[in-house]
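Data availability (excerpt). The following record was deposited with the supplementary files.
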Amino acid sequence: MVESKKKGRGRMPQVTLGCTLIQSEKSGFGALPIQRISYEEAAKLLRKAYDAGITFYDTAHAYSDSEEKIGRALSDVRNHIHLATKSMCQTPDTFWEELETSLRSLNTDYIDIYQFHNKAVCPRPGDGSGLYEAMLEAKKQGKIRFIGLTSHRVDIAKEAAQSGLYDTVQYPFCYLAIDEEIELVNLCKEKNVGFIAMKALSGGLITNSAAAYAWQLQYDHALPIWGVQKESELDEFISYIKNPPVLNDELRAVIEKDQKELIGEFCRSCGYCMPCPKGIEIRTCARMIQLIRRAPSESFLTEDAQKMMMKIEECINCGQCKKKCPYHLDTPTLLKKNLEDYKNILAGTVKV
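Predicted structure:
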């Protein structure tokens, strides 16, 4: 267990990540968004999170300079935090290349949880890829402590949880989860596999963090990682250290309303459909109407936003986005429906 560097402060509920015995506050820091801000802004957020008691930081080799920002900001407190990162490697050579890059960027000589990043299959010993064997060798060398897998495909995540090969599984999990996804989380508890919940705010569609946090408390073994880009976002989760929200009637009503509006055919904004050969910003356009209805609409109706949406008219129906969607969505149809609704909003025939 990592000891807090500050004593006597309030503590949010703790999570133990399965067989790893890694303990963390109920809030992990999801570091994908910090690639969009400056080094100075990222350092401020990361240090504020650490000073508040957040000790689990999740990033990836693929998140441009996110690892380097963490390495610069937190290397002096390395022994007080847990670092998880990911590799999209396809061969043992790229595995070692990306691992060494991550170690340098994070300014550390070991990674607590090293994860296969959104693999289309679940790597296993003897499968011919050599990837799992590379993981084992890296663990033997002390460069990683535990082996994890991240996925947007529930069947792959379940396979990893059942295999006995993985210490952790990371999968999107929030109060919009369907029964099969809840089964995955319960399976991880049964198998003593650590469960890391990505997209706990569903890529921004969930706007009430108190409701999202209170719902996650029902799963005492699940560690949500909250994507943080702004200090105001971080402040919300810091406030839950001493005052964790309770799943009361008010928050249940929020959740029930969101579930009614959002569960079903909606884009999770994972981005695995990208890039589009015609330059359509699919992960934003495919859920534009939901974004408009759930946040101040002005920023989604600007001239630039209109140009982005009108690119949908250039769709050539190649089917690449539909084929790559891990949730099996009919993405071209979603895009066209969003564009139709968007035009009606601009014309004033539909109110938001």
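Summary of structural features: The chain is about 40% helix and 15% strand.
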